[in-house]
Amino acid sequence: MVNFLINFRDMPTPAARPASAISPVTPADLPALLALGAGVLRVQTAEGLQRHLFANPYFPPEALYALRSRQDASPVAVGIVIDEPTYADAQALDSNMPCFRLGAFGTEGMTAKRIKGLFSFLARPDRSLPGLGMDLLAHAAGRLRINDDLEYFAAQAPSDAPALLAFYQQHFQRQGSFPVLEREL
Predict the structure, then answer these.
(1) Burial (0-12, 13-18, 19+ Cβ within 10 Å), 122
(2) What is the distance between the alpha carbons of residues 112 and 100, in angstroms, rounded to a whole number?
(3) Would you call 38 exposed, middle or buried from its count of C-beta atoms within 10 A (0-12, 13-18, 19+)?
(4) Domains of the chain, first to last
(5) How far apart (Å, rounded) are the C-alpha atoms in residues 64 and 33?
């Protein structure tokens, strides 16, 4: 897992407007989210994903939002921003310690550290991913509360999701990383 930060003053200038409509994620979107997150998400069922995203005691479902297709309004990308100001400051943590970040896609069901300012997203790993990621990042910045003392977004991505990792490496500063060694029994 690789940890990242981006200071708001270092964020790229967003497009004038996103390529698709942005709206809240609903339980009806879960099959599409599972497809977008294939190979990244740790949950395999819509029920498990629903428990994680819609019944999580540490972030509300409103933390999630989706970029939707103009043709059928299905999600083409989904983002999450955790902006709870009482959560830990990512700059004060040892980013090389094995610590999953709450809300980062790919950490479902893991013991996670609650980090303020966490941004994470899912999109198909094709050439549209960087643009979709930028649209979701710009929307996340616009969602922050005016009184928040946040100066950055934190992120975490698995190294075996090369398209996501490339996005974060291009736009965020790498903080550190730790290995996740798993074996199916």
Answers:
(1) buried
(2) 5
(3) exposed
(4) 2-173 (3.40.630.30)
(5) 11
67 has which bridge partners?
22, 77
Read off the amino acid at residue 40. Answer: V
pLDDT of the residue at 11: 84
132-166 residue pLDDT tens: 999 999 999 888 765 567 889 999 999 999 999 99
**CB of 75 closer than 8 Å to CB of 33:** yes
Three-state helix/strand/coil letters over the chain: CEEEEEEHHHCCCCCCCCCCEEEECCHHHHHHHHHHCCCCCCCCCHHHHHHHHHCCCCCCHHHEEEEECCCCCCEEEEEEEECCCCCECHHHCCCCCCCEECCCCCCCCCCEECECCEEEEEECCCCCHHHHHHHHHHHHHHHCCCCCCCCEEEEEECCCCHHHHHHHHHHCEEEEECCCCCCCC
Contact 165, 107 (CB under 8 A): no
